[in-house]
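Bug: token stream looks shifted between consecutive jobs. Job 1:
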Amino acid sequence: MQLKRKRIAIAFSILTVSGLAASSPAAAQGYYGGGYSGGDRYIVQSAPANPQPRRTVKPRAPREAQASPKSQRTRTVTQPAPGVDEPLQPSAQPRQTTGLPPAGERRFVSNEVVIEVAGRPSQQQVEALARRHQLNRQESQSFELSGTTMFRWNIPDGRNVASVIRSLEADNTILSVQPNYRYLLQQAKNADGIQYAVDKLRLPRAHEIARGNRILIAVIDSGIDADHPELRGTVEDAFDPAGGDGSPHAHGTSIAGAIAAGSKLTGVAPSARILAVRAFDPVSGSAEGTTFSILKGLEWAAGKGARVINMSFAGPKDPIMARMLAAAAKRGIVLVAAAGNAGPKSPPLFPASDPNVIAVTATDLNDKLFQGSNRGHHVAVAAPGVNLLLPVPGGGYGMITGTSFAAAHVSGIAALILELEPELKPDAVRRVLLSTARDLGPAGRDKDFGAGLADAFEALQSLGGRSDAIAGSTTQGGGR
């Protein structure tokens, strides 16, 4: 991804999260909201908002290289061609549970489905499948993590997603089918603040022990300004599954800054390296990602050797993504996600609710819980996430709030841990974080703060003795 160099003097300015300028009612309802009472998308985890329905956008032509340029074009076929169908063989893998969206769930693309088949089907088999079900292929990719091939299909004739899923699930050549869910980044509007996270996480003492040297952290988010003075030299590689113009975005830039800032700010793991995955495409000042773009980001990050994957977004439970996360965890990748900004009445949001993921909530300068945070027993730990001073595109800085940034801090601590103990498995890293967190709220672990406020220094100190709390952990996701 080519990013324009911008020589703009660093100017500290107090900005809000929705487009970093909340001077209008529309901005105040910014797209970065953490939870939903409606809508149909996944969002990044900043502050609570109730996004407006997204306008319909014509799907782009696929990017993946297929058998030939001709095969990449979207084709509408209403009648099967006689005598040329070459059907897929029935799947040898067990049929997954139904992919129908839960009742009332609307956070998905209204005219698309994601289909999964075993192995790598031929071009003829794919075209026969499309004709049989009267669908148009938008893009496809084989995934090493799952050992399957996934397709994003357009429904050209007005059928609803649920009816198409029912029809496809009757086809025994298809391993699974589900909606193409939408996710949003989790950010919020806020007021003044300082870089208090440095002291809260005890970073000065922690950095005497480790700085995350060369640990690869994949940031699945919106575009990152790699030329920002805080981030120069930190982006190891970049991937753009969302397409678009590739421009940097406030949310992704701030997330990368929370992890690895190294100029006027102090990131949690300033010597770590960022794998920038632009899976969220800016829409109305915010950013939106779908099942398929996030899946491609997970696959790419795993292939690049990511040790930690930060997911500061939230949305509906996603069966295919859950299986990919389980596969990533088995490979030793630490998965961290924002708990979400939908507030105390919201059910758990995904991927934070996944058992293979470390769910992070946000606290403020006074160790009080961010009022927009999701609650639940899946919450693992808390970290600073209210009124944070972080980099934004163009060399500037903004004051930003949300569980998104709390998650980024914990991803950074995971990198510090892995620098000292590179052989630790994800469940062991989780145990380090939980066993060394400073208890907040009611005594013991609770649904608001999890195990308490993450402590980078204490986490590293605990590794010196290889305490029983972390050594010998054998169950993936243990300690949840």
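Job 2, same session, no restart:
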Amino acid sequence: MNRGNVEGRRHQASSMIQWNRVPLLNTCLDESTTINLNQKFPLMIIILASMIAILPSASSTAYIAGDTETNSNTNIHDVFFLDLPCDDNSTCEPSRPSHLVEYFGADWCEPCESLESLLSALNFDDIALIQHHPSVLDQTYLNSSKDVFEKKYRLLFIPSLVINSHSLLTGSAQGVELNQSLIDIQSNFEGIMDIRIDNGTLHWNTSKNSNLTIWRLEQTKHEYDNRTLPYLAVERTTISNTVRQQNITHLLDNPNGRLVFILQDDNFPKSLQSISTGPTGDKAVSELGEKNSLFDMHDGGYDLALGVFVILFLALLPALIWFRNLQKQDFDESE
């Protein structure tokens, strides 16, 4: 083997050794660059930690900026109810309740049982209760109730209580808080000047430019337990504001039911105000709700992800520092 080949192989081996010593993250570092990066490495860590800390605030700012639109035409105007039977040959006049309570539950929902027992103690001569089953898992599922749950109120949890289409109660204490809420909340139902049923025909008049929604409620046996839901929604009918007379004989055929008449605007979604002391999850129930920050409206998933990220980052921090020290040592040896 001649001397030229030997020298060439030595040079090639030396080059490979030097190449292996070059940091993997940058193949163009010189001595001054290495020193600068080592000096700046603690600063980089501080900057990264600061970005993690301000990320929720930045997300909140973006959310608030895009959530400036409100809808003021979604409140119900008036409510009446009529207990059946109403004979075809008689005149029946509905009554105006002091409150409208909409309950969203399910037969498979265990917490719903205790809440429903509290609801059964309400004064139904003065309160119109509508029990909704928006879950498709129920045999008594009603698509109209699902529309109200998802599209009108943008609810997230079962069970939930909505009072006068304005106030929301969720959480484990909602049943206890309901009675006091009914005392504190003032209803201002008005808009229907006359409503009656003559020989199966509904006659009504209003000063509002809103449609009339009729909910037909029935006593319905619970799917699993030996008990009855007294006012479960089984049908919804909407009468246009331009129609002042409507034959509703098909809604009067249940002698143990109730009809609830609601004069309301059909704009969706509806903004709700949470009045629970311990709401479930603390999530917004409407895209048009109060302008809370995104960080304030999370349900715990964000905390978990952020916590895991911080733990992993701290666990990797010694390895990162060690790796940078090895880079510095390699460059010092290569000088």
